[in-house]
Specification:
The chain has 561 residues and is mainly beta. Helices cover 8% and strands 53% of the residues. It contains five helices and 22 strands. It has a 22-stranded antiparallel barrel. The termini are close together.
């Protein structure tokens, strides 16, 4: 079983004050004064002058990565390498292969073959893990071309200079949807016309260590390049510089401090670049062994609009760990777009995993695609903690559970659609996993609201906001019952509601799916499955896609070991 990337490793994120990492801030402020470029104009000019190719990507990417690997002695002689190839074959019969409007449906049989390979490699100073799958789909209906889709998740980390210089990076190939107005679906083999393949490349060198007795430092440069299979979509480059130094508070030393800087630079092809920069100081205090509080203040600037903005920020944070199984943490700040916050509540029991998260911050569609494995993976992982104390074994068990139940992770949380704008996004997500000897239940609920904003924090004109100003809410329930030691049945109900507020495309649409899936493990390497589904999308007007689809499918999955 392959362990997927779960975002940046905790030792590389750089949070020093115990109440959140600077790379994932969610913050606040009322618009007040505007400056002529902020206090970090030189830094902005430096970001803008980085070497990039004609397509917006850095020409130095392969060289940096190769140099980092060359610095690691004995890389080829890995402590442990593991390959796990496999293949899945599926035959599907659907009454609406193109997810067309009522009265225009075409039925088809679909033969899908999906070879895959997963791998892990671990040495004393590096780790690599990833997986790649190619799905080939062949249709019996006339006039429909065969389709091919790739999915890839690769992540690596190198300790180039021991306890000082590190490099991590990755490649992700994702299947997602171009527009919220078009059809969305659980099955990649269906030819919707709304699908887009997203390619995300990351390279992140950083310095990290400790000096003195317990003063930590971090200097990190995150680089992300994004490309799309659909013509007309703008490639993007996001560069984030994170710097921090400080001493954490604790039971022995109640007072802690940190100084942080976060500068994020955004560049879309054929579009003027823009950036957001924040510097802050954080003072934390350990009130009790379980409770830590903090205060923060600093300065920020941005050039999201024609008139650059700069102003002071302030806020507070909290970290409460009443038991080893429960944690509550978060922070609030006053920033250029108003109140900004992040909150996270987690609890785990022998058979239960629970997580509740909420946030309000600026983001982009590229950053939304980098949220990692998602809430479902995290809550199942928490529920499996007691049963599988070893992290690697637990991740393998979680992946096996998700594979057997075929939970659609990208639909059990808010869906990210393409945009080349900076968005103000507010979201709340909750998930709970209940796991018994024969029964398992995974429930997710989410709500999100987003809109493009200007540099002063005000909403963009509704006409200019295209389709990116919308509210989205949804829920999913997956119930799995183990019939025998080698077979189980899984029932899924999922619903997503999206409401658009733009002038050009106001309206609402609902997506719903009901599915039953039976899985039988014939051997440790082989399993077969059969399922039925019914899904539909209901819009409020003719601008949105409407469809009904029913399908029956079955197949076999084989893993080489």
């Amino acid at each position: 079983m392959i362990v997927p990337e779960r975002g940046i490793p905790s030792h590389a994120r750089g949070g020093l004050a115990g109440d959140g990492a600077p790379s994932s801030r969610l913050l606040a402020s009322s618009p007040r004064k505007r400056g002529s470029g902020g206090r970090w104009g030189a830094v902005r000019r430096g970001l803008d002058s980085r070497s990039r190719g004609s397509d917006g990507r850095s020409d130095a990417v392969p060289l940096i990565f190769a140099a980092a690997l060359a610095l690691v002695p004995g890389l080829a002689a890995a402590d442990q390498w593991r390959l796990e190839p496999g293949v899945r074959g599926t035959i599907t019969y659907t009454d609406n292969v193109g997810l067309s409007a009522p009265g225009t449906e075409n039925s088809s049989a679909i033969i899908s073959v999906a070879p895959r390979i997963g791998f892990t490699g671990r040495g004393s100073r590096y780790s690599v893990n990833g997986s790649y799958e190619l799905s080939a789909n062949y249709y019996t209906s006339a006039g429909r071309s065969d389709s091919y889709y790739s999915n890839m998740n690769l992540f690596g980390n190198v300790e180039a200079i021991e306890r000082f210089f590190y490099v991590d990076g990755g490649i992700n190939i994702l299947q997602n949807f171009f527009s919220p107005l078009g059809p969305i679906t659980i099955d990649n083999s269906l030819d919707t016309g709304n699908r887009v393949t997203t390619y995300v490349y990351r390279l992140n060198p950083y310095l990290q260590g400790t000096f003195g007795r317990d003063t930590n430092y971090l200097l990190r440069w995150n680089n992300t390049w994004t490309d799309y299979s659909r013509s007309g979509l703008r490639e993007s480059y996001i560069s984030e510089i994170i710097g921090s130094v400080g001493r954490p508070a604790g039971v022995e030393r109640r007072l802690g401090w940190a100084v942080e800087y976060n500068g994020t630079y955004y560049k879309y092809n054929n579009q003027e670049p823009f950036d957001i920069q924040v510097g802050r100081a954080i003072l934390s205090y350990q009130l009790t062994p379980e409770l830590q509080v903090s205060g923060r203040g600093g300065y920020e600037s941005n050039n999201l609009s024609l008139n650059p903005y700069s102003d002071w920020i302030y806020g507070a944070g909290l970290d409460w760990r009443p038991t080893a199984r429960t944690s509550v943490n978060g922070y609030w700040e006053n920033r250029f777009f108003g109140d900004s916050f992040s909150a996270n509540i987690q609890h785990r029991h022998r058979l239960v995993g629970l997580r509740l998260t909420g946030s309000r911050d600026v983001t982009t569609s590229t950053q939304q695609l980098q949220l990692g494995t998602g809430l479902v993976f995290d809550v199942v992982d928490a529920a499996f903690t007691s049963r599988f104390p070893d992290p690697v074994q637990r991740q393998q068990a979680v992946l096996q559970f998700l594979q057997q139940t075929s939970l659609p992770l990208f639909l059990t949380q808010p869906i990210a659609f393409y945009s080349n704008q900076v968005l103000l996004r507010e979201r709340v997500e909750a998930a709970v996993s209940l796991n018994g000897a024969r029964n398992s239940v995974v429930l997710t609920v989410y709500w999100t609201d987003q809109e493009p904003i200007t540099g002063a924090g005000t909403a963009l004109d509704p006409f200019l906001a295209t389709t990116q100003s919308y509210e989205q809410r949804g829920a999913s329930l997956n119930y799995t019952y183990r019939l025998t030691g080698s077979s189980d049945v899984s029932l899924l109900a999922l619903r997503n509601h999206t409401k658009f507020r733009t002038t050009a495309t106001p309206g609402e649409t609902d997506y719903t799916i009901l599915r039953a899936l039976y899985t039988k493990r014939l051997s440790p390497r082989t399993s077969w499955f059969a399922g039925v589904r019914y899904q539909w999308q209901d819009p409020s007007n003719a601008s949105f896609s409407e469809y009904r689809e029913a399908a029956v499918y079955g197949g076999i999955d084989y893993t080489y070991r």
